[in-house]
């Protein structure tokens, strides 16, 4: 089965062997307060920073999902309100959860085909956290490095948190331009779901300590205190942490992966731009995602394409949120090989050209 679903997505085939190794090394039943776990955790934190180009002074944390990160950040880094800039379902959901926890939190919705309108934002001084989604998996848009830089420059005194779930480990992100970045591993990391990685700047940790919120098992300050010794507040997803270490060690550095994905994204956009019965959902090339493509057609055709693809052992991504029925999505993730995209192209040329 070829799998182009944008999460859970195709696993690196090596995962199969890593799983056997994990079993044989006894890591799966080792206590999470013991030396073997701490060694693993320390090693993986080092690999995450090196391989993904994360500044040395950023702190790395493990949670169980990106959704959990949404909650942790609101609970631990805001007392009054956060501000959410979004154009799709994931960003909107984060905003909605924030408003349940902190009713004064605000959302700013922008158009699918527009760059994030940084100069139009009116963010009040008492905003404690600015949140946005780097790669909106629901509609295949992405915030450009220039926009992130503008946001950083315009609101230097406010913490900025970035949901990079479907771009981290695929693209070379300039982490220094925001305080918090997080991603779950079932997207560009090519691993099974159930683990997320979060990177926090020294300033974010300073702020968390100032607020001192410790009402939850996963309060950021508690996570920070445990992580000083490479431990977690609860028994973590050890098998996934192990897989993460192995995958990162065996993959190229993020700079190389970014170059490959960027080139492949361009070729996929060129290819999918040529059809008449369906079109790219995002018309503005500047805001198109490099890691998730969204294609739009009539509901009937979308249904037909997905079913016919499955019949040929090709899994395409369903549409999401408001685009659930009239789009389908194609992941451009590192674990998927160029040959697999060639097969995908042959399928579309054969049936829909
Ligand atoms: C997949 C995804 C999530 C949710 O990830 P979970 O691991 O299921 O919590 C959040 N944000 C974005 C942008 C995503 O693509």
TrEMBL record:
Coiled coil: none annotated. Its cofactor is pyridoxal 5'-phosphate. Residues 9-294 form the Aminotransferase class V domain. Pfam families: Aminotran_5 (PF00266). SUPFAM superfamilies: PLP-dependent transferases (SSF53383). The keyword Lipid metabolism does not apply. The keyword Transferase applies. Keywords: Aminotransferase, Pyridoxal phosphate, Transferase. InterPro entries: Aminotrans_V_dom, PyrdxlP-dep_Trfase, PyrdxlP-dep_Trfase_major, PyrdxlP-dep_Trfase_small. GO terms for biological process: glycine biosynthetic process, by transamination of glyoxylate. Signal peptide: none annotated. GO terms for molecular function: alanine-glyoxylate transaminase activity; L-serine-pyruvate transaminase activity. This is Alanine--glyoxylate aminotransferase family protein. It comes from Pontibacter diazotrophicus.
